[in-house]
Design brief:
By secondary structure, the chain is mostly helical. The two termini are 13 Å apart.
Length: 390
């Protein structure tokens, strides 16, 4: 099926759910919300979204209530934090978004689409808003949806570039986390804390599994799909998806993509490092390697699509690592994590909400995208047009 067949617009009330259906079933026409409609508001009203936010918040509230005496000094500790270092941590974190936008546009270029970095960054930032307020990592799907909504591209191929970006991130997070943990605990390798042992083991396993999965997908993916009794449209979906995954990267471009991915995750580590410095707890000095280790553990936990933005899961995991592996007290660990998450999640909800209201992208305002793929022969285009659903 041609990309033209993927690009049909009709008004709907739930673009996220509709786009999911369209990606799974390429013959389903993609429907686009009217310009005046705030689709995320409808998504937030859904019971499963409300539960996914309310349940972890309730668990956090219960945990705080049970440890009220132990955590009573946390608000005061946060209030005494150095505001300039907090502001610098905020700025460093948001510097990562144009870097991420540049990297995604490079992946899109490999897949055959030339997108401006500004447009790519804007769409990526909006997708992060969705990931922070909606469960199941639907922001990644929404990113492909927004690009398709604003330009005649293949949503499936675009989703392949998002998938490859996530793979690059997970490999970088796991590898950098292992290296940071090894460096920080290098003098105590024979007597590692249990939390550090588990984290390092998980990091190694994740790297190995992801590399194996990519090799298997590249070598046997099409063969397996061809052997299964699946509808032809599913094979077409997989072909476009794989084109996006492996077409987005190449041997020549991988070093630059790897360097950019490393810089992106160093901004995550520097954010946490500055938060620790801003709070300035006596006897607490993670160093940059320790901050990198803890920040990457938190980022790895966000990959679990259990709650929006990993709420509850990430906080618990980071506090557990800070107390178990680094020996911090629970109040100090809680203060560090709360400030760090306020920057990395709750600020996204505020800034992303403003961006969503101001941006034309969710309403299909359009954008300039150059198709770099070779033009199809006239006969092929005619065949595709004839087979496209009305």
């Amino acid at each position: 099926m041609s990309d033209q067949a993927e690009h049909h617009h009709h008004p709907i009330g739930d673009p996220l759910g509709q786009e999911a259906e369209a990606l799974i079933n390429p013959e389903t026409p993609v429907e686009v919300p009217p310009a005046e409609q705030m689709s995320l508001i409808g998504r937030l009203r859904q019971p499963r979204t409300i539960l996914s936010i309310a349940v972890p918040l309730a668990i956090i509230a219960i945990a705080v209530a049970l440890n009220r005496d132990q955590l009573k000094d946390v608000p005061g500790d946060i209030a005494r934090a150095n505001p300039w270092l907090i502001l610098l941590a905020f700025g460093i974190y948001y510097l990562g978004f144009p870097l991420r936008g540049w990297r995604w546009t490079r992946l899109l270029r490999g897949a055959g689409y030339k997108v401006k970095v500004k447009d790519g960054t804007e769409i990526l930032f909006l997708s992060w808003l969705v990931n922070c307020i909606v469960p199941a990592k639907l922001g990644d799907l929404y990113r492909a949806y927004l690009l398709k909504l604003n330009s005649p591209v293949s949503a499936t191929r675009t989703l392949g570039t998002v998938f490859m970006e996530r793979i690059l991130d997970l490999i970088a997070v796991a590898a950098l986390g292992v290296l940071a943990g090894y460096w920080h605990f290098r003098d105590h390798l024979n007597n590692l804390p249990a939390a550090a042992q588990v984290s390092l083991t998980v990091g190694v396993v994740v790297v190995v599994l992801l590399i194996v999965a990519l090799v298997v997908m590249r070598s046997f993916g099409r063969k397996v799909i061809g052997l299964l009794p699946l509808p032809h449209r599913v094979a077409e979906f997989y072909d476009r998806f794989e084109e996006g995954v492996f077409g987005s990267v190449g041997a020549r471009g991988m070093p630059l993509l790897g360097l950019m991915t490393g810089l992106i995750w160093l901004t995550e580590a520097l954010r946490l490092y500055l938060v620790v410095r801003a709070l300035a707890f006596t006897g607490v000095d993670l160093g940059f390697s320790g901050a990198l280790f803890v920040a990457l553990i938190g980022s790895l936990l966000t990959a679990l699509p259990l709650t929006p933005g990993g709420i509850g899961v990430v906080e618990g995991g980071m506090i557990g690592v800070l107390t178990g592996a680094f020996g911090l007290s629970t109040p100090h660990a809680a203060a560090i994590v709360l400030v760090d998450r306020a920057i990395s999640v709750f600020s996204i909800v505020i800034m992303g909400g403003i961006a969503y209201m101001l941006s034309s992208k969710p309403r299909g305002g359009g954008m300039e995208v150059e198709d770099l793929r070779p033009a199809k022969p006239a006969a092929s285009v005619a065949t595709d047009s004839a087979s496209a659903p009305a």
